[in-house]
Amino acid sequence: MDYKEQIDKTRLPRHIAIIMDGNGRWAKKQGLARMFGHKQGVETVHNITVAATKLGVEYLTLYTFSTENWNRPKEEVDALMTLLVDTIAKETPTLMNNNVRLTTIGDINRLPEGTRQKFLGCIEQTSRNTGLTMVLALSYSARWEITQAMQEAVRLAHDNSLRPEDVNEAFVSSLMTTRDIPDPDLLIRTSGEYRISNFLLWQLAYSELYFTDCLWPEFTEEEFYKAIVDYQKRERRFGKTSEQIS
């Protein structure tokens, strides 16, 4: 079945977020070390980014490295940081050729200095691109983000710049790292897990959720299109009735 042909390009999800899960399990299935799975996962990122760009998706957010991932074995973390640097160097020309703007959410100050500088350099180099905005959630967790937002609110209150009546949904959203990014319309999670894993808890309040058994290295462009077709079959009511939105 050709899912791409079934997509209504007038009703694309504006923002797609993906929890890329299953690299390690894919490698284990092949009898390989976990890092081989991460390297194959990078190829999937490349393919899905190009597919999203060609469709006309505006925002693609990828859960790349969580704050909890810092607790993994040091050897794996170090290898992931090296892979990130190598990937940035390799993929920057592709981002430029496809008019993709790279940005990030997360506590990137925790990254090794060399990695962080190369990453920031790529963000700067692509900052004037006007196509797809690719958001890497790097050293990110939703609880970390919400904690940071609460700390900022306390600082504002301490400076007498914030009153209780000023606090509403728009104000809270303005304190999030995603303040300049629309909330995801669609969240995709690979590998057969059915949980959010501390990802964009505030922003996913009304997102459509799509789960697939595909491990991330096996997630093809056709699987990506399939998720979008499934999304377009749903009725998004945002708390209203079907009659109200028809």
Radius of gyration: 19 Å
Beta-strand content estimate = 5-15%
C-alpha geometry: globular
* Architecture (CATH level 2) name: 3-Layer(aba) Sandwich
Instruction: Report the biggest beta sheet as strand number plus sense, adding barrel if it closes.
Output: 6 strands, parallel
* CATH homologous superfamily identity: Decaprenyl diphosphate synthase-like
Distance between the termini: 30 Å
Query: What's the rounded overall pLDDT mean?
Result: 94
Biggest β-sheet: strands ordered side by side in the sheet: 3-4-2-1-5-6
The structural domain count equals 1
The count of helical stretches stands at: 9
Give the strand tally: 6
The name of the CATH topology is Undecaprenyl pyrophosphate synthetase
Query: How would you spell out the order of helices and strands?
Result: HEHHEHEHEHHEEHH
Low-confidence stretches: none
Overall CATH class: Alpha Beta
What percent of residues adopt helix (DSSP H or I)? 40-55%
Overall structural class, as computed from helix and strand content, comes to alpha/beta
